[in-house]
Amino acid sequence: MECKQATVAVHSGLNIDEQYGCVVPPVYLSSTYNFTDFNTPREHDYSRRGNPGRDIVQQVLSELEGGSGAVMTSSGMSAIHLLCTVFLKPGDLLVAPHDCYGGSYRLFDSLSKRGAYNVIFIDQADENALKLALAQKPKLVLIETPSNPLLRIVDIQRICDLAHEVGALAIVDNTFLSPVLQKPLDLGADIVVHSCTKYLNGHSDLIAGAIIAKDPAIAADLAWWANNIGVTGGAFDSYLLLRGIRTLSARVLLQQSNAAAIVEYLQQQPQVKKLYYPALENHPGHKIAVKQQKGFGAMLSFELDGDEQTIRRFLSALKLFTLAESLGGVESLISHTATMTHAGMSAEARAQAGITDLLLRVSVGIEDSQDLIADLDNAFQAAVTR
Questions:
Q1: Which family does it belong to (predicted)?
Q2: In the chain, where do the E strands start and end?
């Protein structure tokens, strides 16, 4: 019986325990497993290479994204690093978005300076810049849509097609939307990457990453290298991630509903100079988002009209929005991009990406939307108080 995503997320791994009949799979904390005889290992021999709990969560991630195999890693950044380790060598080229996640930017920039590989950061919505970059025959093209933090949208299918024409693999970071709202493999991507810390787990109590591949051979290669360099996820993290995935659909849809209410409120606020959310018809890429996404998600950004003191007063007055990095948890978070998530980028790089010092990024949680709006309203009033 072929089930929908929400059902797959809930039922994967249930009722497989034959010893005690546990409905929920147990946590397999053993680091090692005995051999049944000389030179006769079991399915698992050492937990860095394979763990029964990690097997389950990798299977459900693969099913949710429509892939042929998945690898759970110790963090989202170790997933990104694993991809570069496997597919890039000195002299190879990576094409990345100029406004990608700050951690990804920092990794690519620092390793390229050490000669590990070459990187070009471009505005992938700029057709000319994209074609010029692809003409240099990159090995990997990383796509991040919606982008972090400006929610820029690019056409996944078109960029994947262009990447394949020059022999490159197309990788999509699907962290912001999750497989509930976007399926990059169905749009032509070869690989999907996630920071599972965010929506997939959803409770801000876990650091993990994942890579899902369309080609089983690529999935197997990634699994071999993940074990080789030791970036696989741990047993308890696997348990927590699977528990979080159980409620993925319910959480994401409620968060998205709350975000829509907050965006409607923010549109009426004179102190909001710019508002970034793909559901808005004047948002760049809105039509593409409608075509390739099942929804607009729960991430939004806005620029305040003011200065640093305005930002300080606004943030200090918030009670329900926590000033913190990360995103995708059940609680609402707000971050000042320039000094937090993208502090690793130079001021010049941030300016080129359109990230100003007055930009705030919001991850909307599952609280009551009217309470969240009231909290924002109080902060806006405090921000104009001299």
A1: Belongs to the trans-sulfuration enzymes family.
A2: 69-73, 93-97, 118-122, 140-144, 169-173, 191-195, 209-213, 272-276, 299-304, 322-323, 333-336, 359-363
